[in-house]
From TrEMBL:
Pfam families: ABC_tran (PF00005). It comes from Haloferax larsenii. Keywords: ATP-binding, Nucleotide-binding, Plasmid, Transport. One of its GO terms (molecular function) is ATP binding. The keyword Transport applies. PANTHER family: ABC TRANSPORTER, ATP-BINDING PROTEIN (PTHR43335). CDD domains: ABC_DR_subfamily_A. This is ABC transporter ATP-binding protein. The keyword Acyltransferase does not apply. PROSITE patterns: ABC_TRANSPORTER_1 (PS00211), ABC_TRANSPORTER_2 (PS50893). Residues 4-229 form the ABC transporter domain. InterPro entries: AAA+_ATPase, ABC_transporter-like_ATP-bd, ABC_transporter-like_CS, P-loop_NTPase. Belongs to the ABC transporter superfamily. It comes from the Archaea.
Length: 303
């Protein structure tokens, strides 16, 4: 049974077609990145998956349930980010998570949840006084309550700095290791390729393509160079990295690792390898077309 199965899913608002015939399957254990520029229809699709918005036509199954017919069954099994308005400024993160745990009839340890997203020190401060990134981390912790089978996350990286993005990747890695399926929307290709197996590109309400993430990068990208900001690089870093068969050259210069990969397609695998081997990547730049250009190319190829 697929975890998400949408067929010809369409949403109209008067004359606007926010979602135009979305057909998509996501299998158990996958991590799927839902990409697209502003207004592409990503939030509309996710909100329909969560039964926050009703579809105009088409069919949908989330974990075997139609969210319109069985919203509670879906909600019990799915972790999502609460709306910004769902965080009460006078509550503390601890209050908020205690409430979420009670609502889900779950038994998560609040301190452990706060620790996983790195805001344990802010557990008893008021949410109104937290930074945007800290609030986003709290929203992510909320999505984890009850060990959901599926994480459906709309722009989870929004407002996160490089350290926050790293926390997010770590959380996703652990959730997948536990067997969860992950589906999230983003504009940030460089982050998406660290986390996803597959991407779908939305434009103008339509799903233009779905592809393996490395294939997608290869098709969109012609430059094999990468630049990474590294926290406390070891002395032999350049040597270690250039020993990889995917790398032809590596130099380190004042905390910055410059890499030339054997081919553009190797870039995402190399970054993933470095991240998983424990290297503290503070930031990364990959030359090549912007995601916006990639969307436009995909849209043109579609015509
Ligand atoms: N409640 C609504 N009423 C009217 N139009 C809407 C409504 N919600 C969304 N739309 C329209 O549907 C289209 C798709 O919007 P949606 O929010 O799904 O895009 P998105 O890909 O999530 O964009 P973003 O990255 O900016 O969040 C847009 O043209 C938007 O203006």
């Amino acid at each position: 049974m697929p975890i998400i199965e949408a067929r010809s899913l369409t949403k109209r608002y008067g004359d606007i077609t926010a979602l135009d015939g979305l057909t998509l399957r996501v299998e158990r254990g996958e991590s799927f990145g839902f990409l697209g520029p502003n207004g592409a229809g990503k939030s509309t699709a996710i909100n329909i998956f969560l039964d926050l918005v009703r579809r105009s036509s088409g069919s949908l199954s989330i974990l075997g349930y139609d969210p319109e017919e069985n919203p509670l069954e879906v909600r019990k099994r799915v972790g999502s980010l609460p709306e910004a308005g769902g965080l009460y400024p006078r509550d503390t993160p601890r209050d908020h998570l205690q409430f979420a745990v009670r609502m889900n009839e779950a038994d998560d340890d609040i301190d452990e949840l706060l620790g996983r997203v790195g805001i344990e020190d802010a557990a008893d401060r008021t949410i109104g006084g937290l930074s945007k990134g800290m609030r986003q981390r709290l929203r992510l912790a909320t999505a984890l309550v009850g060990q959901p089978e599926l994480l459906l996350l709309d722009e989870p990286l929004s407002g996160l700095d490089p350290a926050g993005a790293r926390v997010f990747r770590e959380v996703i890695r652990k959730e997948r290791a536990r067997g969860a399926t992950v589906f999230f929307s983003s504009h940030i290709m460089d982050q998406v390729e660290l986390i996803c197996d597959r991407v779908g590109v939305m434009h103008g309400g339509r799903l233009l393509l779905t592809d393996d993430v490395h294939e997608f990068r290869r098709e969109m990208d012609a430059d094999p160079q990468l630049t990474l900001a590294v926290e406390s690089p070891s002395e032999d870093l350049a040597e270690r990295v250039s020993a990889s068969e995917r790398v032809t050259e590596a130099t380190v210069d004042d905390g910055t690792l410059h890499l030339t990969c054997r081919s553009p397609a190797d870039k995402s695998a190399v970054v993933r390898w470095l991240d998983e081997s424990g290297m503290a990547i503070a930031d990364l730049h990959s030359r090549g077309p912007s995601l916006e250009q990639a969307f436009l190319r995909a849209a043109e190829a579609e015509r």
